[in-house]
TrEMBL record:
Domain Interferon-related developmental regulator C-terminal: 380-430
Pfam families: IFRD, IFRD_C
InterPro entries the UniProt entry points to: ARM-like (IPR011989), ARM-type_fold (IPR016024), IFRD (IPR039777), Interferon-rel_develop_reg_C (IPR006921), Interferon-rel_develop_reg_N (IPR007701)
Organism: Stylosanthes scabra
Name by which UniProt lists this protein: Interferon-related developmental regulator 1
Listed SUPFAM superfamilies: ARM repeat (SSF48371)
Residues covered by the Interferon-related developmental regulator N-terminal domain: 24-335
Basic and acidic residues bias (residue ranges): 400-410
Region: Disordered, residue numbers: 1-40, 400-419
Protein family: Belongs to the IFRD family.
Domain of life of the organism encoding this protein: Eukaryota
Amino acid sequence: MGKRNSQRKNAAIMLDSDDEGSVSSSSSARTDKMSVTGNEEVHVDQDTLLEQALDALDEKRGSTREKALSVIIETFNSSVQHQFVEKKFATLLHSCLASIKKGSKKASAKEIALASHAIGLLAITVGCGDNAREIFEESVNTLDEYLTSKSDATKIPPFLECLAIITFVGGNDEEETQRSMDILWRVIHPKLGSNVIAAKPSAPLITAVVSAWSFLLSTLNELKLNSKFWQNSISYLSSLLDKEDRSVRIAAGEALALIFDIGSTEKFSAASKSTDDTTQEESKVQESYIHLQGLKGKVKNQVENLSVEAGGKGSAKKDLNTQRNLFRDILDFFEYGASPEISMKIGGDSLQTSSWSQMIQLNYLKHFLGGGFIKHMQENEFLHDVFNFTPKRRYLGGDEPRMSSGEKRMFKSPNSVQNKARTQLLNKQRLLSEGRNLGHYAANAGDE
């Protein structure tokens, strides 16, 4: 007990020396040393640094907790902290949840944002498995309650990202994914009583909600676009394409492309039926199909206009080019069924995507991880599994390729991304097993 109190005191002294802290995604942060009083510097390893920061989360002073969370985020970005989370993930999770539950009375907006971001990083670090399930189950109700209360709109976006990430990693089925999507949707479409008037959501809030919602949508198998919900969703997203804010239009465009990519329609055909034989239910299906085609036609016209938009006064050229390129890709998709292809270098390896789902997942995780994205793509097996990406160095030195936690999850999860890869993984494991019997390992066996 005395040793822990001493560690906590030292952590408080070290962390109080600098009251500035923010949600940081820079992997260049000096996480191997911390400033203490005066100009003196103390060099410590990352485990010790994380232990000190974890102890400091119990301190009463808010600025100390903020600094501790900043250190944790910087350290988790600079390297994948598997060993630390194996020992301390539950302590870190509940300390972060404690910051969130304190709410506006004791925790600042900055502390709540940092704690939310730290939980998301924790989920990505532990990958799939029992720990990810615990993060999801322990956090989702707290996040739902806070988002429902909407006590401070400035605190909401970090919660949206956190909810999306923990569901993506720890959610086991489509029902859980859809529940989180409903929570997100209610932020901009709240269920109101007769005497309640909803505040108009800001453009950044709409963008954050739609982006997080699309990120989770990318994991679903199939959408029945004839349903009233999806047609209402398409209608709402179509209305966002007319908004002035470019980030809103881009987020809505990606969501619409994804919906039409994974959605299916049951086209009504009465070629072999007379009008008298057409049932009332079949008539409804026909009407729904016609309405959906009208919506799609409207969206296509909007997309075409945005793909050639000239831009307005003071419009940032980079943002305008991003919009034009995206909506040209969406137009190609509507006209030819072509999906966008992305190729990027991760160290000396090439990461490639060839679907709307993969593109949205890549962009969202890249944004969330910021400067830590490259490091995690090189070392984080969960991300390797998400993007079917294998750094060459993973098999150097004769190490046997093993089934990762993410691969194991593919055998128990009904999520679409995992389902599509399940057969390939079974074949890969079978071929690797055959290779072992022959006394060698084929690093690329079964990869298509």
